Each structure stands twice: as structure tokens, then as C-alpha cells.
Amino acid sequence: MSIIAWIVLGLIAGAIAKLLMPGRDPGGIFITIVIGIVGAIIGGFIGSALGFGDVTGVNFPSLLIAVLGSIILLIIYRMVRRPTV
């Protein structure tokens, strides 16, 4: 996949993941793209390991894998950045 395709997929996946999991997370379009791209990598790794496939381009199966990876990334971020009382 080209860099532009990763950025587009990352933006879409990050935005969908943040819509599905509202809350206080790092903001901004660049952070959303980074969350989406890293989520796509995580989702692709997990999808490949489980035999579901990987991220191959800007298509529905790749988008679904990238969104699931982005949600996993947001869950991990929230667990790490949990406010101390």
C-alpha cells in the first residue's frame, strides 16, 4: 500500500474508532491519523495471525480490520493513561 493510502485509511479508521469510543483521548486530525495507521498495523498483525486477512488497501475488509485495531489501540491508551485518584 502507498503512503497516501495508509494516511487515508488511517484517517477514516481513526475517525470511526473515535466515534465508536467517545471520550477524552488525544485530539486533533494528526493524532487521529496516527491512531488509525497504528491501529491498521495492529489490526493487520492480529488479523494475519488469526487467519482473517490483513490490510491490503482502501477497501471494506481492510477498513474493518483497521478500525478494530484502532479500537484496541484506544483501549490500551485509556488503560495506560487512566487518571490516578
TrEMBL record:
<keyword id="KW-0472">Membrane</keyword>
<dbReference type="InterPro" id="IPR007341">
    <property type="entry name" value="Transgly_assoc"/>
</dbReference>
<keyword id="KW-1003">Cell membrane</keyword>
<dbReference type="Pfam" id="PF04226">
    <property type="entry name" value="Transgly_assoc"/>
</dbReference>
<comment type="similarity">
    <text>Belongs to the UPF0410 family.</text>
</comment>
<protein>
    <submittedName>
        <fullName>GlsB/YeaQ/YmgE family stress response membrane protein</fullName>
    </submittedName>
</protein>
<feature type="transmembrane region" description="Helical">
    <location>
        <begin position="62"/>
        <end position="80"/>
    </location>
</feature>
<keyword id="KW-1133">Transmembrane helix</keyword>
<feature type="transmembrane region" description="Helical">
    <location>
        <begin position="27"/>
        <end position="50"/>
    </location>
</feature>
<keyword id="KW-0812">Transmembrane</keyword>
